[in-house]
Amino acid sequence: MLRRWYQLMIDNADDLATLITWENGKPLADAKGEVNYAASFFEWFSEEAPRIYGDTIPSSVAGNRVMTLKQPVGVCGLITPWNFPAAMITRKIGPALAAGCTVVAKTPCETPFTANALAELAHRAGIPKGVVNIVTASKNTPEVGEAITTSSDVRKVSFTGSTNVGKLLMRQAASTVKKVSWELGGNAPFIVFDDVEDLDAAVAGAVASKFRSSGQTCVCANRIYVQRGVYDEFVKRFTEKVKNFKLGAGFEEGVTHGPVIHTRAADKVEEHVRDAVSKGARVLAGGQKAAHLGPNFFDLTVLGEMNKDMLVASEETFGPVAGLFPFETEKEVVDLANRAEVGLAGYFFSGNVKRIFRVAESLEVGMVGVNTGLISDVASP
């Protein structure tokens, strides 16, 4: 069934991408990329489903064997974000179904239609009624979340979203001692050392990490640290690349980046830019709302000479603002990178093998990308 669902997504990729662009705003090319990424979870877990192995463990008592069996945990409550309205649904539903669990998925109020389309394809794939259940919500989102986290029928909750909401859901899930999986806020450092072998590759990696989905991903670079030896040249090449992008409506020819999700998001981006400038940052590109395009558009922005006292250094922007921080030593930048309260992802570019292993293990994050700006992969935990 998962394999058929995957094929139906591929067969209807253009329609799904159109829905994503309509309700999320990302350019059509990006939306098509998301559909392929989203479908890959169904393909991967359809292949993993027959391989749910247990273990046989030697016992301390002679003649005994310890055996472990993996069994479905039960109904899974899944709460997903708007930034990847297809991929965040399939990433959670795929493994749940592969393990033999039914699901109740609450979709974000900003992007409900993509999930509804996926539910229709599930029906066409032959998945029985009651196995995949989609719940939409708007102003009653907190009540729906509480119903999922406190219901005695739901045995596990998976949530991708903000840290504050994750804390609330964790408290609620504790009432019935559920199994839980959280992917919460990020404030990813992206470090470029002066021993980098290919500066253009570092620039491309930083751009890809920072401006994917207009900076609205939880693993995107939020703080870009560049060692003084290559800082000026990196800033020049990075800024030139960003200035070549085109902001606009997702269906227009040549558009590379779309709006942020709503006006509150645009206001937060503006607040971060104003704060940085007031504390000494230089605007190298963009820096303001693109009001002529609409209230949710913000120019792709590059800020130079950032420092640790600015909001960007401590808060996740979740928008198209790249703050470039100069640094001197490895110890200094590792300390700066680890100052964040959250540690989801991190990135760095270096040509020194010893440094690669040293820094990768020093960064207090769950995922590290070395000499790459994109780490999302269906096979990664």
Automatic annotation (TrEMBL):
PROSITE patterns: ALDEHYDE_DEHYDR_CYS
Keyword Oxidoreductase: yes
First-level EC class: oxidoreductase
GO biological process annotation, one example: gamma-aminobutyric acid catabolic process
InterPro entries: Ald_DH/histidinol_DH, Ald_DH_C, Ald_DH_CS_CYS, Ald_DH_N, Aldehyde_DH_dom, Aldehyde_DH_Superfamily
Catalytic activity: succinate semialdehyde + NAD(+) + H2O = succinate + NADH + 2 H(+); succinate semialdehyde + NADP(+) + H2O = succinate + NADPH + 2 H(+)
Gene Ontology MF terms: succinate-semialdehyde dehydrogenase (NAD+) activity
Family listed: Belongs to the aldehyde dehydrogenase family.
PANTHER family: SUCCINATE-SEMIALDEHYDE DEHYDROGENASE, MITOCHONDRIAL (PTHR43353:SF5)
Protein's name in the database: Succinate-semialdehyde dehydrogenase, mitochondrial
Natural source organism: Aspergillus heteromorphus CBS 117.55
